[in-house]
Design goal:
Layout: E1 13-17, H1 27-31, E2 36-38, E3 44-46, E4 52-55, H2 60-69, E5 75-79
Length: 84
């Protein structure tokens, strides 16, 4: 069995958006504008594209706050390579 975190730098976290759960409240884009931008309907998009963004260490606290403030729990901040 291969470790999913093999080859991943320790301490690297990733922000994931669950678009099925998201209602477009916009709290996350306000708290984390460095990584997220709102689309025309208010739904978050990762600035670099896709559903996931690597979170630099200096933004880890803001990413956790965005996760905590999401009213529908559509964000997950976890170590890179963690399941989910």
């Amino acid at each position: 069995m291969t470790d999913v975190t093999e080859g991943v730098a320790e301490g690297v976290t990733e922000l994931r958006i669950d678009f099925a759960a998201c209602d477009g409240h916009g709290a996350c884009t306000g708290l984390l504008p460095e990584l997220l931008v709102a689309d025309d309907w208010g739904f978050p998009r990762v600035r670099s594209g896709g559903r996931r963004a690597l979170v630099p260490p200096e933004l880890a606290r803001a990413a956790r706050e965005a996760q905590r403030c999401c009213p529908v729990l559509a964000l997950r901040v976890a170590p890179r390579g963690a399941g989910g």
